[in-house]
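CORE FACILITY INTAKE
Project code: CF-77B
Contact: R.S. (postdoc)
Sample description: multi-component assembly, three entities in total
Requested service: structural model of the whole complex
Turnaround: standard
Below are the sequence entries exactly as provided by the requester. Do not edit them.
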Amino acid sequence: MIAQIIVDVPVNRTNRPFDYHVPPWLRPLIRVGSRVVVPFGPRQLQGYVIGIVEDDEALPDRSRLKDVVQVQDDTPPLTPELLKMSEWMSKQYLCPWVTAVQAMLPAVLKGKSEKWLTATDALDEEACGRSGLLWELFRKRQLPLTEVEKQFAEEYLLVPGWIQSGLLATEYQVRDKITRKQQSFVRSLLDEGKLEEAIGSLPARAEQMRRVLQLMLVHKEQSLSVQMLRDEYGITRSPLKSLESKGWIAIEQVEVYRDPYANRRFQEKQKPVFTPVQKEVLTPILQSIESGTYASYLLHGVTGSGKTEVYLEAIERTLEKGREAIFLVPEISLTPQMVERFKARFGADVAVLHSALSQGERYDEWRKIIRKQVRVVVGARSAIFAPFRNVGLIVIDEEHESSYKQEETPRYHAREVALWRAKENQGVLVMGSATPALETYALATRGRYELLRMPERVGNRPMPEVHVVDMREELQAQNRSMFSRKLHEMIADRLAKEEQMVIFLNRRGFSTFVMCRSCGYTMRCIHCDISLTYHKTNHTARCHYCGYTIAQPKHCPECQSEHIRFFGTGTQKVEAELAKLFPGIRVIRMDVDTTSKKGSHEELLNKFRTGQGDVLLGTQMIAKGLDFPRVTLAGIIAADTSLHLPDFRAAEKTFQLLTQVGGRAGRHELDGDVVIQTYTPEHYSIIHATKHDYPAFYQDEMMQRRRTGYPPYFRLVLITFSHEDVPVVIRGAHTMADYLRQRLAQTTVLLGPVASPIARVKDRFRFQIMLKYRDEPQLSDLLAQATAAFEEWNKQQKVLMTIDVDPYVLL
DNA sequence: CCAGGTCACAAC
DNA sequence: TTGTGACCTGGC
């Protein structure tokens, strides 16, 4: 038996299957999709089985094949579908196949190859002599080499000699990080009659023991968790021990899932009565689910239009059809409310996957999926890889969010993967947004997705009234505060009415760089081409990209002025200003500083929900999905800070942001207002946002994109090169550019090579090429060939190249 | 002449 | 990615 295996060496040269002989004892265990350990060169590595050939005779010179060393799981973590999907991703995004595979699996499954030092039979007491290391190895038989290096630094140099003389040997081991949580449970060893007898025989004061036995009587056959007995009945360890020694109960270690939502009750909500619009959009979706064939929908619904109910209903119908559902959200920890709704509706049938989980928790949720214990997954980007076997529905909420694009290899977009998966499974894809990505909307208008509209809020709630304030006029009116008179007045009004508000600060532009007020000098990283960020906690200035840190200087290095200071973390400044203007105002500030601790996010939101704050103040993270009945005002401090970024999506992002923030206000009984402060009130993204007019924005923005040749009219590929020498990196970029230029279609534009907007990171200079194309059917193949040619050239140099298909970040 | 470092190359 | 062996440099 021969296994075809891709190994964990993520470079192009080894990006192909290698053949291994499967020894007889592994044959019953090994499967396509298995994780295995194989020898590779002088090492041992982790690999994945992508194919199995039963008939050895079919392959020539099998005698030269090495043996598979180990199969790491009894059930393969990769389903056939995931395997196929990873192969597609590797082609689509030009990444090594293993990298795509690893992106699909929980991080704890990634094995690390370690070198160990082992004792041979020749190592006896005598041979150990006075060496501490040899004695340690004599006792333990083996130690990881890294440990030896650390603990026996002075003897480390002698190791090669000992290996030569045959006392020691080296060996490779592949270890993953799988851990399983164990919990103690007690189980009764007595039948019912005996139990009652035993209760009677206990002395009167053995109250805890009696309690336990009584509980066993009630819960018959079931095991009781020791933790539960302690928490709910105050039963301590020792009575359990004595019951055990009497032979009445057994205390057992049982494996349990790490569940961050354990001990939480979720209230089951009644299914809502659907509005006519909800019914209207549900009809085609449910029909598609019913028919069990591929279909895709763009659900364009204004904020508060009740999209979630539509999703939930579609999921329920999918489950009824015996199929599974994936629900993607931008970043789930941001919307505990969403999790709550799912847990309430589908109970234990849901697994939740998001970045705030620990690796162990993530693994446990993932196992619920692969063991078929759940049928619904709610999660962020990577949840699209949930190892279901029969996905019938994929929902992407807030479809336009950029967090669906992964910014490291594999640089995939969850929307694109979802589309592939829906087609592959004859499933239904539903994408929802109040502000669809231009690409998506364009495809919908061309019929590639069916467009469904929900133009009104549930219960005919009016859209909030939007007030645009021209900050230039404020300045003329001698108002130099960051709050306009309008916003000031409305905050005061809400405070008086005891209603709540959300104040949003567009983080960018308000960043925390350090600048001299006298000469304008800004502190920059010595390794990277960007400004340093001020960190309050230890008064340092730090580089975002490479971690370079220096103490905050007291004098400007240029002009010696003392007026060098950081330009405050926006939110803190706003908070201080609010406190000054409105004494006694209760502000809940959400930013990186206040939400870094696990669970603090939810805690702050809960505080706000329960009315312990008047203002929720924050950055991007408060713009999405929050739904608080008493919020009647949304304020945006500086709408245009995102408008002037060197990014062709700047206007789109601004429009989305304004619409989303605006959508937080007046969702329930009370009417809402939105105040947008801006220096460019005439910009179309602001004008259309105030009127809640997506189609108009779409028209204007499409004109811009057409004029400038950006998506959706053109598709992009960004190729970035980096090297510590400018001439080398330039030559590399030109080599690639020349190769491509000769082979690209006439209509394709190749821009560059030019220096990247961030021209240096970690002492490496960066250049880039941008491809803009409309019709390039063989592009992935061409890029693969170009990469091969580039690598041929790159043999002597060490230029790093990354290819980003449909990039979001152009820096 | 050898220790120590650099570098291209292969990996089933 | 990483270990290996070929090759080079420099010190004696």
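Facility notes:
- Chain A has a mean pLDDT of 88.
- Residues 8-11, 14, 40-43, 45, 113 of chain A lie near DNA strand C (CB under 10 Å from a C1').
Invoice: internal transfer
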